[in-house]
Specification:
7-stranded antiparallel β-sheet, alpha+beta, Rossmann fold, Glutamine Phosphoribosylpyrophosphate, subunit 1, domain 1, 459 residues, single chain
């Protein structure tokens, strides 16, 4: 499962803007690995550098030194709208008359097609197949004297889930959609301000985490300081999978440390699906905390049974067919001497398509596991997501096609237990109505009939 993107914004006259943005993006690499980019403004002109690949592959010291200024925005992308092409890399810049802005967006706009058609008729040009360019031109076309007034107007016309950073003139803006589906937080750094998708980005660069930007809030930062524009919200719809999978465990979301929430999921799993076993292991890395929680609650010892090669995917050199056939073996290496002959509880975050999990199970069997009892930190995913996660069709989801006993048989495990929806909500210690649970229960926070497929603009 892949989420959309990560965004960063910094306003500071006393910080090496480009390097600090680089390291912030580096800490948010888990949110997108297809492309990355940084745009910097000195208050007069905007310079940017974007490219395909990981942050560390795109930027050199020389390229960062070319990005001088006191305002920056940055972006890591997983493309949920448009293909993974260089022309879709963000931040994007759009211009109309004397107005120019750069923006970076995490999310998905489901009414982007009619908005793009409307803007095209008004004479706005499009050079990408991303809905981010639609949002940029919509802001420029909106009425209002200041850029923040235009942003506020545009937000009323956008349907979807998004958090974004915007750079215009001598201002930095952070914007979170009225449902708060995607996280966005605020901090201080060297007499200035930083905006980022997750608080872990602030920890990495020595910034002080101030708090989360509220749903529907526009934070405006310039030389006069920080101001905020807020609007009434109808309901919150924070994506539950920020806790299950997307966010880094050291981030704080809705006031909760993600690590502790995942640990609680493991505790709930042990209570709902107990089993006699010798060891508890987690599928690294997102299920590690949950596996520890399962162990603590059940009394079954925890150990690392799978070690993850964290450098897989961090090279442009493509493996040959023989290495591609190894698949999971390139990503995980089992500790044979630990798991051989053992009855294992294997904790994982989720099962989406059911293609990778059987390979992990086979790998554990081949290395001597006598029993495998799979425990999943989320209920079965039975519905597509239209708000920025790449679950675009129901036929892709194994839980929409098979019963739990059939899934157990397909995966080849001795038992299978999913965490209940009630157990998942209790693990977060937040009210149920705070979350978007559409992929689990089919109840979407907004109508999705007009949602466009990922390559819609290219087709």
């Amino acid at each position: 499962m892949n989420e959309s993107c990560a965004v960063v914004g910094i306003f500071s006259h006393e910080t090496d803007i480009s390097q600090t943005t680089f390291f912030s993006l580096f800490s948010l690499q888990h949110r997108g690995q297809e492309s990355s980019g940084i745009a910097v403004s000195d208050g007069h002109s905007i310079r940017k550098h974007t490219g395909s690949g990981l942050v560390s592959q795109i930027f050199t010291e020389d390229e960062l030194n070319q990005l001088k200024g006191h305002i920056s925005i940055g972006h890591n992308q997983y493309s949920t709208s448009g293909s993974n092409s260089p022309f879709n890399a963000q931040p994007i810049t759009v211009s109309s008359g004397s107005s120019t802005l750069a923006l970076a967006i995490n999310g998905n706009v489901i009414n982007s097609a009619p908005l793009r058609n409307e803007l095209s008729k008004l004479g706005y040009d499009f050079h990408t197949s991303s809905d981010s360019e639609v949002i940029g031109n919509l802001i420029l076309s909106s009425p209002g004297g200041s850029m923040e007034e235009r942003v506020r107007y545009a937000m009323r016309r956008i349907d979807g889930a998004y958090s974004m950073t915007i750079m215009s003139g001598d201002k930095l803006m952070g914007v979170r959609d009225p449902m708060g589906t995607r996280p966005l937080c605020l901090g201080t750094i060297n007499g200035g301000w930083i905006i980022a998708s997750e608080s872990c980005a602030m920890d990495q660069v020595g910034a002080l985490f101030v708090g989360e930007i509220d749903p529907g809030e526009i934070v405006v930062i310039d030389d006069t300081g920080k101001n905020s524009l807020k609007q009434k919200i109808k309901r919150m719809a924070l994506c539950i999978f920020e806790y299950v999978y997307f966010a880094r465990p050291d981030s704080i979301i809705a006031g909760k440390l993600v690590y502790k929430t995942r640990e609680s999921m493991g505790v709930m799993l042990a209570q709902e699906h107990p089993v006699d076993a010798d060891l508890v292991i987690g599928v690294p890395d997102s299920a590690t905390a949950a596996a520890i929680g399962y162990s603590q609650s059940s009394g079954i010892p925890y150990c690392e049974g799978l070690l993850k090669n964290r450098y897989v995917g961090r090279t442009f050199i493509q493996p040959d067919q023989r290495l591609r056939d190894l698949g999971v073996q390139m990503k995980f290496n089992p500790l044979t001497r630990i798991i051989s002959g053992k009855r294992l509880v294997v904790v994982d975050d989720s099962i989406v398509r059911g293609t990778t999990t059987p390979r992990v199970v086979d790998l554990l069997r081949e290395n001597g596991a006598s029993e495998i009892h799979l425990r999943i930190c989320a209920p079965p995913l039975r519905h597509p997501c239209f708000l920025g996660v790449d679950i675009a069709s129901k036929w892709e989801l194994i839980a929409a096609q098979k019963s739990i006993p059939q899934i157990r048989e397909h995966l080849g495990v001795d038992s299978l237990g999913y965490l209940s929806l009630d157990g998942l909500i209790r693990a977060t210690e937040l009210p149920k109505d705070v979350f978007c649970l559409a992929c689990l229960n089919g109840e979407y926070p907004i109508p999705t009939q007009m949602a466009l497929n990922k390559l819609g603009f290219e087709e």
